[in-house]
Amino acid sequence: MNTPTPEPLAEIAACNDHALNTLIRSLTHSQGWFSLILARCNYTCLRSQILHLLHQRCPLNLFELTLDSSAQTIYTAIHHQLGDQQPDAVLVTGLESVGDLDDLLIATNQVRDLLRDFPFPVVFWVTDKVCKRLIRVAMDLYNWASPKLEFVLPEPALRALVEETAAQAFADEENLSLDCTELEAIQQSCYDQGQDLPPDFNAILSLTLGVIHTRNNQIDEAITQYQQSLTIWQQHQSGERVGIVSLYLAWAYALKGEQHEGEIRQYVQQCWQHLNQENCTDSLAHHSCKLGDLLRQVGDWKNLQQLAEKALNWHQQQGNVKKVAQDYGFFAEVALNKRQWRDAQQLAQQGIDAWQQISDIEIKRLGLCYFILAQSQQQLGQVKDAIATLATAREISLNATIPLHQYDPKLYVNIIQNLRTLKFEQGDYLDAFHLKLEQRQIETQYGLRAFIGAGRLHPPRQVIQPGVRGRQKLSLSQIVAASGRQRDLEELLERIRRRDRKLTVIYGSSGVGKSSILQAGLVPILQQTYFEGRDVVPVLLQVYKDWVGGLDKGLVEALKSVNRSYSFAKESLDTQSNPPPAPLKKGGAKRGSNIDLIGDNKRSSDSPLPLQGRGAGGG
What Cα–Cα distance (Å) separates residue 447 from each residue in 228, 415, 476? Predict the structure, then answer.
């Protein structure tokens, strides 16, 4: 964060002068031995400003430590970060962002005596939420600390910050000044003090919380907040804000699924009604991406045409090539649905040309332009051109940083399905067959088709929604359960969990599903599983010419994928500890290792797990 300007900084300093001076005295008087200090601060921006003031006023050598979201104990984090440094005090921030906060606090509480080894005071910067968790799961550690110091924002600064965040939410900006926890803390603080919030203040709070909940994939909570905000704005007859909140409501229902088409259509129409006015042109153009996608989804081609016309004029004046490319895509889809094949062909090509002028390509929109171009070419009898266009779309989609099917599996399936049909009609049966296999694989992975008949299962995938950060974990056993392998999967997990089962071999005739249960079920689930006291790092080996080398490479990559550095991974394999372990040999991992390795192997053993069933594909 940038250095605060003098006026707000002076106001914050005056409001927190007593707590800041107390903190400086506590740090000064604790030199040479360990003491634990709790500093309560519910706002990241306020904490940054208080730290800025602390560095200005305190003559001590202060070391700031921001915890990683995957941190396991505070003691370990401090020990590793300091190295040979000897600061006068350590300021620990980021507790509110730790993924498994309870685990971190419990683990830190268990090794709290080790904290006494630090010859300096340690300050934990905590929010109300973190403090409650600390009291609940690590009371011994909490009792070590002196009474916590309270840092607060002055009311005018707090209101200005909320309004600034709301303006960012209305503009759908990526970064907001306040996060969900901070906004909820503001609400709770006002309720605790018996303050009646003005209706407009409540409305912007609810809207902002709704935006954050949507981005965290907490859709039901988002809809509740949006409804509260919409009700207030409707009472105050604020047309533009009613339109924007209606748009966010429609988007939230769209994220819930196509079964909510009625709600999507209702709020899209309400949004269009309020934003399709002269004084709302800027908002209409700014939100044209979301609104256009929703109009496409409900098939409102008339209003999509009007939106594209208004947005294109505004985006061309702004020189926004990316948005212009998006607008041509909308025009092309309208023309296609009106069966105006030549217009659709021309507009889709204009969209493709515009996308090719920029580096920040949205693969979903570029893929749609190619698909519309191919459909119009096919309708105009240009079959070879259509095949070439679809082949290009498929190649670009697969070679993108994130493949198209992860954003829009239905669009990608339509591309390869149309390509397969045209290839088959042209007599290119082998390519058509391979495209059919690829189509079925994608449909199965994204739940567009049940797994039926022969074939090899692949791990299930979840669609990436732009702007949605917190996607919930999939139930990885669902596809396996559809093929009747749930009991096998549960038995495998139980055997791996038990310490007396050192080796499990899955055996069976070719085609019964050995590889499928490993690839689609066991390995993905183990990547999300933790057995008490054991790190589970599944490594899938399918080539055995140099299986020791393959295991080495696979283990390094697996450890990197769980946020461990490459050097740590190499230490796990070539470790330089005393005494050095024996190298891996054919026949198994080092005895006593607490890392579980899963391989796709056909060898027999004295502890076999038979797998019976029907299907195709070796393993």
Answer: 34, 18, 12
